[in-house]
Amino acid sequence: MMFSLTPVPIEVLDFYDDGQDTRHYRFRLMDADKSNKHVAWHKAQNGQFFMLCLPGIGEAPFTFTELPNEAGEFRALVRQVGSVTHALFNCSVGDVIGARGPFGRGWPVDDMSKERLLIVAGGCGIAPLASLINRLIDTQSFTQLEVVYAARSRATLMLNPERDRWQHCVPFFTVVEDMTDLNEQEFYPGTAVGILPKVLHAFAEQPDRVLIAGPEGMMEAAAEYLAAYGIDPQSIYLSVERRMHCAVGLCGHCYLQSRYVCTDGPTFTWAELVPLHIDEQ
User: What is the pTM of this model?
Assistant: First the structure.
């Protein structure tokens, strides 16, 4: 396997606040149209991730909310939680930082044509699903699509412009635990798992495939519920983003029993994860 640990330069094109301590960034690969080293970026897949590199600070993994286009521009949702993201929040438009990627196994996009799909996202878990939702809506390649997005409160709602568009295109269930100052005609009280019976009832037939991303506890509870409901664990996909550091299976930070999250994932089927005892890691 050939790979490089040397970051490529990327420019901060713009950003805006999009949720509590969260920003949506747009980056551009420098000289993207002049270098063969960017070929892999233009072949990035929905659900893959990249390493954002801040010189002298460190690296952190992020998923694409929008895949690189022909000009080398791409987007990522970033929540300020550590030294790397703190340093990024101090950057200005026009600053040049670094990135490595794309890495990992994305969503099984090629297998979804004409299927009945259920997407469940919690918190920042909406980020690794964003580019997929856009693709599905743009191509209309599904038979039925229902989306659940859960957040703790109004302040933690993310990808607000994108969600506004999605809600006009497909059935979209926004679930919020703290309903203070929220309209119950637009939002549902509770949790992602709690609303699943209502969402599943909306399907004419059982979903063919389920895609889940968010806090591990939520993902596990949702997967267990859906498997008990009768959905094949091989058809339930989770995006597991834990402790990824080198991104190429060398450091062992993301080791999960016999698997590496960075190379074998970040997307796994529930059937793959159950024997790995993810809830005990």
Answer: 0.93
